[in-house]
Amino acid sequence: MRSADLLADAFDRVSEAVHEAVDGLGEEELAVRLDAGANSIAWLVWHLTRIQDDHVADAAGTEQLWTSDGWYDRFGLPFPPAATGFGHRGKDVAAVRTDAELLTTYYDAVHENTLAYVRGLRDADLDRIVDEAWTPAVTLGVRLMSVIADDLQHAGQAAFVRGALHRR
Description:
Layout: H1 3-22, H2 27-31, H3 41-60, H4 65-68, H5 71-75, H6 90-95, H7 100-119, E1 129-131, E2 138-139, H8 140-167
Antiparallel strand pairs: 1-2
């Protein structure tokens, strides 16, 4: 098995977790926050998708789907186009209101774009430095694993919120 196959499998697992957390929920359920400092399912999935879109586009040297495919306009959020959710506070989390279809359609577009990119990678590509702002510098392989880890963490948080909603 090639490294690209492992990466594609990991991103497919993220996709399954995202859909399990979101599918069948209405806009109100997606926006619920368990307390004033908590993240909603909508924000968690939007954020993990934005990070994946941002980081994969940067690594691939392409424009993010968020702007190139008009997702920024479709969502109509009160943030600048470059926003990914880092540094967001409670009012920002509360501003991410959307329906499941828009949220998962954007996620699916980013997922397919990610798969197309990682499936074309060779093992040697994973050693390429993509970010010199860290010590040690970040390789493509480390960046992709970081995205997967972050995505799975946030998808798990969204699943937790969904479970809490259903137990109420």
